[in-house]
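Work Package 3 committed the consortium to producing structural models of liganded targets before the mid-term review. Because experimental data for this complex are still outstanding, the team generated a predictive model from sequence and the ligand definition alone, so that downstream docking and mutagenesis planning could proceed in parallel. The input record is reproduced below exactly as it was submitted to the modelling pipeline, together with the SMILES string for flavin-adenine dinucleotide.
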Amino acid sequence: MRSIVWFRGKDLRVADHGPLAEAAASGEVIPLFVLDPFFFAPERARELPHRMQFLLESLTALEANLAHLGSRLLVVSGRSVEVVPRLAMLWKVDRLLAHRWVEPFGRERDRRVGEALDREGITFRLFEGETLLPPGSVRNGQGGMFRVFTPFGRAAGVRLDLAPALPAPRALPALPEGLAVETAPIPTMADLGLATNPQLQVGGEKAARSRLKAFVSGPMADYGTDRDRMDRSGTSRLSADLKFGTLSVRTIWQAAAAAGMGESGWRYLNELLWREFCHHLLWEWPELLEQPFRLGFADFPWRKDEADWQAWIEGRTGYPVVDAAARQLLAEGFIHNRARMVAASFLTKHLLLDYRQGEAHYLHWLTDGDWAQNNSGWQWSAGCGCDAQPWFRIFNPTSQGKKFDPEGAYVKRWVPELADCPAAFIHEPWNMPKAERNRIDYPEPIVEHALARQRFLAVAKGHLGRETA
Ligand SMILES: Cc1cc2nc3c(=O)[nH]c(=O)nc-3n(C[C@H](O)[C@H](O)[C@H](O)COP(=O)(O)OP(=O)(O)OC[C@H]3O[C@@H](n4cnc5c(N)ncnc54)[C@H](O)[C@@H]3O)c2cc1C
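The resulting structure, written out as tokens with the ligand in place, is given here.
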């Protein structure tokens, strides 16, 4: 049996890799990665610099791991829908094995590859693994997809009966002799016209394992209380590993579950179920990447305001947490979840700017930028997504800051202009005594909270009409 194992950027590991284990157990193995211009054309790569850096590092680590096991990763350039069927025929393989993607464009790619292989009598088998449970498999009493998280989480929890994560193969067979192919080197950031950002997390399976170990033996014990604290390193920082599959979600789930830790452990597993929910939502409703879940928001009168938009992306709104989030994103390709929620709520509700603008900006700069989770986070924050809460919840950036960054350490780290601001005023510098305020070069708020709140409520009420009554 000769199999291609097609690595596709969301499963850059050798441990707990179903397609690799299956291929290794049954004969010849050809590990393949395609540099598809959909992501790797320089103009496309420039739209995802941080994700690209993490991916290239992880891909390089995968290449080394496969070589260490006795095989070799073949890296080939071209459009997947053309290259993969062509190589499968040329190499006379029996099977193409890969992990399923939930995104509509990934599904379309797989449909086309599957069709081409079908004509040649070659099997294309998709493995689950991006999620804990197969997308589409968690249903409500009426057989449909859940529209809010809590009952979804409960139903998914009941269904979860995970087999143990698969170990990495101890060895792999060498590539079959005489495979005709023009391989390409893994491109460098410079090849793609991108600068390397030394502040990003390091990619690769080994670094991911260290992060998991460090979290489970450290911050996880206090996750229940610390996860919302922007000033603490209380979360796992495994989001990019989950995104690029340097660890499988099953591996993380099982490590966290084995560690126990009561309420904190449970809260952590619950976040993994949130991730699960986002992926299942996108599987069920692929159109979510284009339109709001609550259709009442479809033609919502979002404002267009370039000055406000620039202030938000550059971190000059005059609201310290919002500005810290904006700057953290550009600097290290990450933002604390609480700060993401506050910043996204501010963009959509205080500034009345389209959530899709923010969604695209986050996808551009986040290292963990994930279509399903980012879309869900933005729709949730804008009030148009799957949420048990009504759309009129509006975060107050000042009180959120006081509660989740009480001494202002998070703000001071990312907004150094406020380094000397006393803790009492760190989340409302506009209230400082004038003499002190004048010494600080930090903007006044671009909107006043109470007025912005009223404006959003009035516009939303007018637009959504009876739905919101
Ligand atoms: C506007 C907005 C945009 C977001 N965009 C993304 C994105 O592009 N990619 C992404 O992975 N997450 C996104 N999130 C969710 C969340 O902010 C990040 O997953 C989290 O901050 C990552 O840090 P961590 O790994 O330390 O999280 P932890 O607290 O350690 O959580 C563990 C894992 O659970 C998952 N998770 C945690 N919180 C959420 C959540 N609210 N929704 C879905 N999954 C969650 C993540 O995979 C995370 O790695 C977004 C949230 C918002 C509000």
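Reviewers should note the following from the model. The chain has three domains: 2-127, 131-164+206-284, 295-462. These observations will guide the Year 2 experiments.
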